[in-house]
């Protein structure tokens, strides 16, 4: 079983509160994934989800904008813009296809534990996926 599947199985239907602040948020799942699965340093200057899109570490992640012709692959970090709840949202892709992404997500809907959820690109009407960060292959990391 690969690291991503192990991570999902370990935390599915549980809560992650990585920073012990504000209760379990989507950012907590993201930070736990970055540390536990990728082994990367945490993003700086980031306190809410959509900021990860602007303050990601380009040496660690390739930034891929969402289009109608692409989709995330397992292990990508999917980011929603600020209009999604005022803070955006962030989750880890486990599957994808044209027009959708299946993500491991926390606090969506609000208060929910870590769950697998299918997101449609067209469903959000202003609360859309902006894109995803793909861990770079030239950085030492686990196989996803």
Order of helices and strands: HHHEEEEEE
Largest sheet: 6 strands, antiparallel
Helix content: 10-25%
CATH fourth-tier homologous superfamily? endopeptidase domain like (from Nostoc punctiforme)
Q: Domains counted in the coordinates: how many? A: 1
Radius of gyration: 14 Å
Number of helices: 3
Query: How much of the polypeptide forms β-strand, as a percent range?
Result: 25-35%
Mean pLDDT metric:
87
Cα separation of the termini? 10 Å
3D structure, described in words:
It is built from three helices and six strands. By secondary structure, it is an alpha+beta fold. Strands 1-6-2-3-4-5 form a six-stranded antiparallel beta sheet, with helices on one face. The longest helix is centred in the first third of the chain and has 13 residues, at 26-38.
